[in-house]
Amino acid sequence: MAKNATKKATTKAAPRTLHAARFPGESARYRAARDKLLRSEIALRRQVEAVAAERRKLPLGGALPEDYVFDSEHGPVRFSDLFDAGKDTLLAYSFMFGPQMAAPCPSCTSILDSLDGAAPHVTQRVNLVVVAKSPLDRIRPFAQERGWRRLRLLSSAANTYNRDYHGEDAKGAQLPMMNVFARRNGRIYHTWSSELLLAPSDRGQDARHVDMIWPLWNLFDLAPDGRGTTWHPKLRYEPAAASMQT
Fold first, then answer.
1. Which fold is adopted by the domain 69-196?
2. Where are the domains of the chain?
3. Strands (DSSP E) along the chain, which ranges?
């Protein structure tokens, strides 16, 4: 019995897995590697939640310096009027489409393609606008071409919002920036901006700063080949579209 007890004690225990589900044809090697990755994904989820909690604890930033007037589809609108009743948070994305640009930024466009679909859900809780420096008569035709029907599009051609909130640089070049504002006791304050764009990037990394609202790259991250290094969004994909129609 002592011999048997020793044998049992020295038998290597099977590695503990995180769940009982298995997929067709998977090997023990795959399962071990996948469980290791799963633990990393759980840790990442915890970190994402921790950072979100830290973001929510930020004190209010600076008060809005002026009640900017934008051009909208329904005429001039003040910044203070962008807050619907019962919604005290405003998300404002700076769309890189300046008056000197021949065409809008393809990356911003791919973001807005997705946000247009998400907008009815987002606006159940917060206000959402897209601000571009171009005149509205340039923004609207492009939006119609893209099929955007749910985004609230504004032109900042007649105000300094872009410059003040880093949607453009000192030379007038447009920048993609997400800014968040809160209304408190009748006043409007800045609360957060995608400042990762402005901060130094780790070596070899792109200055990604709005991945949270850009599902394109998150989907690529799930693929074995990842994001790649040479592909970038375009305004049109004629060959691919043609092949899908045949």
1. Glutaredoxin (3.40.30)
2. 69-196
3. 69-72, 75-78, 89-95, 127-132, 153-155, 177-184, 187-193
